[in-house]
Amino acid sequence: MIDDHSSSPTAGTLSCADAIATLWDYLDGELSPEREAAMRAHLAACGPCLHHHEFERAFLDAVATARTSDPAPPALRSRVIEMLRAQGLLP
Amino acid sequence: MVDASPPADISPEFSQSALDALDDVHRFAWSLARNAADADDLVQETFLRAFRSWRTFLPGSDIRRWLFTICRNAYLRSREREQRYTTLENDEGETMPAVEQRAAWLREGVDVALLRLDLKPAVERALDALQEPFRSAVILVDLEDHSYDDASAILGVPVGTVRSRLFRGRRILQEHLMAFARDAGLPGARHD
């Protein structure tokens, strides 16, 4: 079970269970502005939920290290164009 | 087999904007295939299919998203034998176990691995091992920065399904990374 730390008035209107359940939506920027504000208020007041938040943010940052920004190799671009020309799909 | 349209029949604007997106398609294909040779094949297949069916592209819409859909479908066709996931789609009730698992990692102290270790090699291995349909959802949202709506359009599934696949895929990646942290002998991480 999730401990509820939101009994403190400063924890806002969101329960810990709700905050934890929508943590990834929050980090992905998928919450409505109202819900996002409620989440921010909750995290500012609830240390344990903030710890979960930091964990997930660090995890997503780690996953993002697998991004590549390399452009396609020039030889591949040439092969694609040649192939399309050979198929009569490019002049 | 679809007959090739004569070059003059293909809109130059379409050709140009499609080829302008080649770097993006290549990056997506590489993320899916995880090796250069397969990624190159996937890019060529994507552009061949796109140009053959260029009339199905809606002018003014996002060509990158359209090409990603073609690319992902080509990838799935190339790996049809791995499509064993239909029974894994509905994960109602998964949230609580996921939260409990995360709480356990936090208690163990294994979460500090996320800050202290170079996780890139482990992330790449975990992505290599991640199966469809979770793999595409994670790549689109976490590596390509697409919104859930965009990913929904590319994958051709409801947003709720994107969310479900994404969350399940992330959990699988987390399990890989936490195992890596334990194997790395991180202080505070215990072997069960």
Structure in words:
- The complex is a heterodimer of chains A (91) and B (192).
- Chain A has 91 residues and is mainly alpha-helical.
- Chain A is 60% helix and 0% strand.
- Chain A has helices at residues 16-21, 23-27, 33-45, 47-64, 74-86.
- The longest helix of chain A is centred in the middle third of the chain and has 18 residues, at 47-64.
- Mean pLDDT of chain A is 87; it is low at 6-10.
- Chain B has 192 residues and is mostly helical.
- Chain B has helices spanning 12-20, 22-33, 36-52, 63-78, 95-108, 113-116, 120-129, 134-143, 148-155, 159-183.
- Chain B is elongated, with a radius of gyration of 20 Å.
- In chain B, 36% of the residues are buried.
- The chains are: A mainly alpha (91), B mainly alpha (192).
- The A-B interface holds A 2, 20-21, 24-25, 28-30, 51-52, 55-56, 58-73, 76-77, 79-81, 83-84, 87-91 and B 4-8, 10, 15, 19, 22-23, 25-27, 30-31, 40, 43-44, 47-48, 51-52, 95-96, 99, 102-103, 105-106, 111, 114-115, 119-120, 123-124, 127, 138, 141-143, 147-148, 163, 166-167, 170, 173-174, 177.
Q: What would a concise description of this structure say?
A:
The complex is a heterodimer of chains A (91) and B (192). Chain A is mainly alpha-helical.
Tell me the name of the CATH class of the largest domain in chain B.
Answer: Mainly Alpha
Decide which structural class fits the backbone of chain A. Answer: mainly alpha
Taken in chain order, the helices and strands of chain B follow as HHHHHHHHHH
Helix content of chain A: 55-70%
Strand fraction of chain A: under 5%
Helix content of chain B: 55-70%
Shape of chain B: elongated
**Rounded Rg of chain A:** 23 Å
CATH H-level superfamily title of the largest domain in chain B:
Winged helix-like DNA-binding domain superfamily/Winged helix DNA-binding domain
Spans of chain B with pLDDT under 50 lasting ≥5 residues? none
What count of structural domains of chain B? 2
Mean pLDDT of chain A: 87
- Indicate the mean pLDDT of chain B: 83
| Through-space gap between termini of chain B | 55 Å
